[in-house]
Amino acid sequence: MASEAEKTFQRFAVLGDSSSSGTEINNKNFSKLCEDCGIMDGKMVTSTDVDTVFNKVKAKDAGTVTFHQFTEAMKELSQKRFKGKSPDQGLEDIYKLMEGKNPATTSGFYQAERANAVDQHTNTSKYTGSHQECLDDDGKGKGIAGREEITDNSGYGRDHKGAGTYDKKN
Q1: Percent of the chain residues past pLDDT 90, beyond the cut
Q2: Distance between CA 74 and CA 110 in Å, rounded?
Q3: How far is CA 64 from CA 29, 45, 78, 110, in A?
Q4: Tell me, what DSSP letter sits at residue 34?
Q5: Which residue among 85, 125, 142, 158 is the one 20 to 30 A from 48 at the CA level?
Q6: Lowest mean pLDDT: which of 11-25, 92-106, 142-156?
Q7: Is it the case that residue 25 has pLDDT exceeding 70?
Q8: Exposed, middle or buried, 66 (CB in 10 Å: 0-12/13-18/19+)?
Q9: pLDDT over threshold 80, residue 94
Q10: How far is Cα 43 from Cα 123, in angstroms, rounded to an integer?
Q11: Number of other residues whose CB lies within 10 A of the CB of residue 75
Q12: Which CATH architecture has domain 4-98?
């Protein structure tokens, strides 16, 4: 039976990587786990610390760490995060931070940001100059009718403008 910490490790290990079995975690997800679980606090433990420890515990040419290597990394980070505690006690405290945690989704904030980015282009009340003339009172586009200079190309040849004007003398 996997411990709570192992379950959390697995949930983060498979994040955004459908081919992952959950037994190894990459640097990006390792950092996210440290951030989302409050291991990285920006004071005692920074993103640089997290990257350094990850690279220290992983195998030379590997891009991921196993749960065993992860445990070593957490022991090391616990010494910074919980100063004065033994590595084993620090590890326990880190595992308490990890209990029941899931990767935080970034849907809320970023979607709101993106929604506002389009508003400036779709809010027709802010259109000025010649762009405004292309819109009716409701802010809908008039299409070709909203353009000032419409060329009548219905005649025959270059000098005859407009259909049915062939016989007319200027």
Answers
A1: 52
A2: 30
A3: 10, 20, 20, 28
A4: H
A5: 85
A6: 142-156
A7: yes
A8: middle
A9: yes
A10: 43
A11: 17
A12: Orthogonal Bundle (1.10)
